[in-house]
User: Fold this.
Amino acid sequence: MSTSNLEAIFNPRSIAIVGVSTKATRGQLGGNNYLDAMISCGFRGPLYPVNPKGGEVRGLTVYPSVGDIPGPVDYVVSAIPASGALQLTKDCAAKGVKAIHFFTSGFSELGRPEGIKLEKDVLAIAREHGIRVVGPNCMGVYVPSSGVSFLSDLCNESGQVGIICQSGGNAIYVLREAANRGVRFSKAVSYGNASDVNECDLMEYMADDPDTGIIMAYIEGVKDAPRFKKALQRAASRKPVIVLKVGVTESGARAAASHTGSLSGADRVWDGLLQQVNAVRTSTIEEWIDMAVTFTFFSEPVGRRVALLGLGGGATVLAGDEATKEGLVIPAFPDEMRRRTAALLGSEAGTIINNPMDLSAEAWNVGYYPVLKVFDEYKDVDLSIVHLSLGLIARPPDTHREIWDKLVDDIVRARKDFRKPIVVVIQMATSPDHYCWMLEAREKLYRAGIAVYNSIRHASRSGTRLLRYYERKNASGR
Amino acid sequence: MSTSNLEAIFNPRSIAIVGVSTKATRGQLGGNNYLDAMISCGFRGPLYPVNPKGGEVRGLTVYPSVGDIPGPVDYVVSAIPASGALQLTKDCAAKGVKAIHFFTSGFSELGRPEGIKLEKDVLAIAREHGIRVVGPNCMGVYVPSSGVSFLSDLCNESGQVGIICQSGGNAIYVLREAANRGVRFSKAVSYGNASDVNECDLMEYMADDPDTGIIMAYIEGVKDAPRFKKALQRAASRKPVIVLKVGVTESGARAAASHTGSLSGADRVWDGLLQQVNAVRTSTIEEWIDMAVTFTFFSEPVGRRVALLGLGGGATVLAGDEATKEGLVIPAFPDEMRRRTAALLGSEAGTIINNPMDLSAEAWNVGYYPVLKVFDEYKDVDLSIVHLSLGLIARPPDTHREIWDKLVDDIVRARKDFRKPIVVVIQMATSPDHYCWMLEAREKLYRAGIAVYNSIRHASRSGTRLLRYYERKNASGR
Assistant:
């Protein structure tokens, strides 16, 4: 199969959702979830709910079968039990449908002959009629620019990150949490058992996709290793590819086999391949998101010499340790620069005037702007990292919100006025108020073009990975 | 100095707080914070606010000086500028005060002769009159059973964990966040510059303290290495000691020197010492809290063979990988046990019926109780770990709270009815609703005696550390 006919998946003109109920379905994750998601995401073409009983749902006519739909149908979402999958595929073939997404599970992932056979039979009919199949056993497709989505609460703004993700749950988490940190998506596909559309198709497609500038791939296993290698190589030569390869331990591989029928492959083979093509390998889902944040906000490398600024003496000692352990350089400030900073504050009591710097007691009055200005003008650092460590400050945002807001506003202003990048770490929330403040602060910061991380460790590790990516890219002359 | 006269610090009969303002001081972290904290914590003896201007605050008479206080004063908190510290110490000596805590900063930590001299002069007067000094440059003392506190929002319940922590901010974070996970404290001391009361005094005291069963120590540096080694050895032979040694890199050590005037010492020397005495070394503040949680909820070792249960196929693959990488064993379930679990569910579609196990689609109806019962009866696992991965589930607690609550109630019931321990991981919050639900779920769980962690990685690493602690303890015959 070529990747050209994936257009019906990413940009369908009409969608039928099979397995929609006209009764309340709260707590059920079936067809109605897909109907709600497409409506929330602003799908502009016709939406056709399907249920043998007919009726009406969300103001739309429910059709008894795909064949009863009056207009042409590009894309079908199946949320019916596996037992109906074969007949549905036949109906879709007769209707001229171009792609079916099977949310439906109960196929080869069960590891039993009948499930494997059913998956093969569905695919045979689909292939015969040129129908692309997404899944089965997956959340499916999210393309905010097309109004295609699999959950109502996902962000409707578009961006440059494409996600290839066997797991629906992990895709959901990334779409929610990376969006909280300013990452926006071109498209995301959770493709489950990968009976037809698989990691190779998607990697080939995204390599060429002008809407996708960064690729995130969560891989449990691949079915065609040579083709995947070639697709990955091509994609990674054109844009950053961030890989989370899982199933790397015996128990993880066992779960992957049962989850999506995947064979995980040896971990060190993956390590070699990913290094060879300069794909960025991450080892946790948090790091995977961190690199999407990093490539979103940094389109070129920055040096590793950092000025570290934050609140709290102990937090500052920890920050120095963590940044250094993760490969950043925190150069001591020369006396003149220390004097200049101290002069801003009026007093040094309760502060650490060096690098890393702690302005706990004094920062409230002076703010961060003048200090970040001194950092910006200092020739021996490449960027600043500011940490806002919520739970360790005696005056938390619960009761001193205006002070915390001022610090964020200062950072936003500094980002606009100064030359060097600023990165922010917001960490150690211990109350709902902290958490809510963090979400609001993150949004102010990312809308100003600032990358936000959850710890100094994560920010530093991401920075080191960014540098290594560009070093290798430049060394290979690409 | 001996440790016996630390009683005036941990159990004072009366407290004077010097530097209390009768005006509103929102945003200021001075004497009024201490006054509020002691009142919130329920201090039962007389509280004497002190300010040269006199007046009244929170219904209490403000005395112009310590000498003007009518009754005896055991313990004084100084929140005045460093320039008044010497006179205050003289006043305290004349009054017969037993201990002074200097929240006041501007002493040796500035690294300048005048600050160093002031600290020495204060100490000389204090020593001459048998006054113990906490600090300067620190948050001070928290003893919930005595009603002594340094912040109004700390937990008033007492427990068995004692904290030795140079850094006030880090102490605050731990007191807030570990409390959110069910850890309760006997006492905590942030001792800053350690001019008098230092890590040796506190380690010696807590080794013998019947109220302290677990010791957490955050160390930037020690001033008397042989004495500290001896104190640590004695403490660690009697109870678990969890150490977070910071200032282990050049930049961290620079910050520590400026923060509390500490010399950090070589990292590998610390590694050797901590291994030798079987103190548990952690490398981040999160791990430090994790081990306090672990020792609080596990007073004896548990095996490393785990049944892993959770929601979400991808999350389950990751869980298997992370637990295995951190040294736990996730044995595959035999066919008979898989059949038994499948029979509970009615269908296997959308699930992973093995170890690790994913019950996404079916768990909502069946619940966790019957599955945990099967785990409990299976001879080849020592405990169960359940992960509740909030942000990756399409039906989040925002809209399906009753389902999530049922899962937690099932775990609580299983903990009461079954023999083997259950550990819970709540992770991947992506909204304020998730975060609030997490805090409530944590409390239900820890009140049922269940340890809660923030990731499979953290839970597994903590379990491995617990096992190693007991292996070494048993090997040494202690």
Summary: Chain B touches chain A through 95 residues (CB under 8 Å). Chain B has 17 helices and 18 strands. The CA atoms of residues 468 and 474 of chain B lie 10 Å apart.
